[in-house]
Amino acid sequence: MIPITKPFLPPIKEYKALLEGIWKRNWLTNDGPLVRRLEEELREFLGVRNIIFVSSGTMALQISLKALGLYGEVITTPFSYVATTSSIVWEGCKPVFVDIERETFNVDPLKIEEAITPYTSALLFTHVYGIPCKIDEIQKIADKYALPVIYDAAHAFGSKYKGRSVFDYGDISITSFHSTKLFHTVEGGAIFTNNDDLSEKIRLMRNFGHNGPYRFKGIGINGKNSEFHAAMGLVNFNYISDILEKRGRIYHEYRKRIMPDKCLFVPNTHNKDFEWNCAYNAILLSDMNEVKLVESALLKNNIYTRRYFYPLLTSLDYVKNRSDLSTARDISTRVLCLPMYHDLSESDIKVISEVINKTL
Ligand SMILES: *Cc1c(COP(=O)(O)O)cnc(C)c1O
User: Fold this and answer.
1) How confident is the model over 321-337, as pLDDT tens digits?
2) pTM over 0.90
3) What share of the chain is helix, strand, coil (3-state, %, to 5)?
4) Of the CATH numbers 3.90.1150.10, 2.40.30.10, 3.40.50.2300, 3.40.50.11260, which one belongs to the domain with range 241-359?
5) Where are the alpha helices (DSSP H) in 54-122?
6) Which of 81, 119, 237, 262 is 20 to 30 A from 46 (CA-CA)?
7) Ligand 1: which residue has its CA nearest to atom 2?
């Protein structure tokens, strides 16, 4: 069986070594020493100013929307995971969808301005598959209308834009450390911001607003993460260069083997502005029928794929859409993500590619 993804697990010995310390200290959660160490190591590796480790990527999104005090409409992408939209609605805001571009499947910056109304309070976009959005173009629009930008960078650990971590952009970037993501802490996520006051506010929000044992500053929630999760992150972190390198090799192996005239890889142009982490391997087929053909041919060989992202988020029963999303609609019916994980072997890629080439 070849799954679509497989969580990375480090040697158990290394994890156990950190557990010894947890037992010795008897400090299991509440901003413990491993949580602080993980934040510090990631901060340095990523070159970001502030990082707040939280219990999930979804919690990171919700705290971010709350911390920015958003209300009214939030302009967003219909081509993402459900949490991007559900968080907006959960925080009492209304998602307004903007179409995506064919090159990266990220929001099309040329379509943002027409979606802005007097009720718009922020922009929230996803770096789909870890491929950075057109950050400079988006920032120009944000500056012109004085709107904060949040990036859902759940896929983007290790991706860079103009030489800096993508987490360094926007008023806030969030990521997910869920076990299926490229870097994980079993469950978890993080919030990044260059604004120190905002960072402090988010830190308080993560812990019920506690500002001392008997004092509270502002509303908060329980968004904390534990020493056990931080320990997994610290051990996995030792393997991050290896994981990133292997992903790159796997992606190029696929590109070498799958006939280029049959489908399109994403991203489908060379862009010197970014370095990509190869978090997902998506191909674009000619129509939904072909997707189903490839999907079932692979399944017959016990190979699992996923249609990220189908259907569009506009199909959720708690949202409405009034925009023309023809590109997103078209792409979501034709996209298929192939197996991608650190120890996917060359022979597996060969089998997968041969099934695809034969089916097309
Ligand atoms: C995984 C994911 C999330 C949610 O992260 P969790 O840690 O699972 O809560 C949000 N947005 C995108 C784009 C994701 O892929």
Assistant:
1) 999 999 999 999 999 99
2) yes
3) 40, 15, 40
4) 3.90.1150.10
5) 57-67, 82-90
6) 81
7) 154
